[in-house]
Amino acid sequence: MQPDEFVNLATALLALAALVVLFRIFRGDLSDNKGGLVVALVILGGLAYFMRTGQGRALVDHLMGIMG
To answer: How far apart are CA 63 and CA 27, in angstroms?
Structure first.
């Protein structure tokens, strides 16, 4: 798998996970702990942003080089 394909796949999976978390935030009861879900959503967004930056791309290239 090429690094470009890996970054695109990882971004898509992070977006899908964020969509699931958003669904759980708006679907749950008022007594549910929404703070933890919001934190999870922020972390997923941060990971997706990091994967698209130059430093994140260098990290992905380095990890792919180790594995290949």
So the answer is: 37
